[in-house]
Amino acid sequence: MAFSFDSRPKVNVCVAQTGESYPCATNESLLKGMLKLGRKGIPAGCVNGGCGVCKVRIVEGSVTVLGPVSRAHVSAEEEGCGITLACRVAPATAVRLEVIGKLEKPFSKRPAPAADHRATLQMTQQQGDM
């Protein structure tokens, strides 16, 4: 039985909204490192830089660009502010990132308070009595 050990240097990547963290090789994309381990946190689309689903902001740490980033999804101004596509960059150091792409809402959406649900239910019941 042959064992294959990955000896590439790895650094820690943390997704701020979920607290999920995972080790990622310094020569593989932030997204690919997460997907390879079956982890969740960064939304995945085409994994090729074309869809913009994996748009993130690098909050701490630094990254190495692996390929061109589509200006349709990340402007030069955004890139200057640490915004990039997780499929197009690899961690150079430990990284903390925030998901800001198309699927950011599930992380920041808060459920409505219970009182709001009761008010809606009462209003519906009253309309049914008419």
Automatic annotation (TrEMBL):
Q: What protein name applies here?
A: Ferredoxin
Q: Provide the organism lineage as a comma list.
A: Bacteria, Pseudomonadati, Pseudomonadota, Betaproteobacteria, Burkholderiales
Pfam families per the record?
Fer2 (PF00111)
Disordered as annotated region, ranges? 108-130
- Native source species: Leptothrix cholodnii (strain ATCC 51168 / LMG 8142 / SP-6) (Leptothrix discophora (strain SP-6))
Sample GO molecular function, one term = 2 iron, 2 sulfur cluster binding
Q: Where is the composition biased (Polar residues)?
A: 121-130
Residue stretches making up the 2Fe-2S ferredoxin-type domain: 9-103
Q: What superkingdom heads the lineage? A: Bacteria
